[in-house]
Amino acid sequence: MSSLTLWSRRDPFADFDRVARRAFGPYFAPATPLSTTRPTGFTPAAEVTRDGDDAVVRVELPGIDVDKDVAVEVDRGRLVVRGERRDERSEERDGRTLREVRYGSFRRSFALPAHVTADAVTASYDAGVLSVRVAGAHAGAEPRRITVSTDAADGEQIAV
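Predicted structure:
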């Protein structure tokens, strides 16, 4: 007797997407919502954390010359980190030369609160990690309790 599984955790479309991206590379990927160009390189890992009222964005960019190849900008309410990675290595062994060249552009974008301006953003680079501090990003962002009223017959209000 066989059993039939109606619900599955596997997403066949995600599997197909992964296979297609591996086979065709970045040209298969859809254009990003803010641009009409397709991604042409890599997507660096990023982490967004809170430090008091500040937001800290850390982007892993090992081996990149940040002075020449990285730009940090505030554009239409978004923090944009973009640049290009160029990595060339050459090795000679047993009379043969092995040369590896990797390159590609990248762009990461993060929404900013409406009150944040470019003056509140600072950036530093250390040990392959770009750290961008957005001063006051969480100022006034504390959760507030909202009273929810009901249509109860006795007119009681319930605080949530």
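Summary: The helical segments are 12-24, 66-69.
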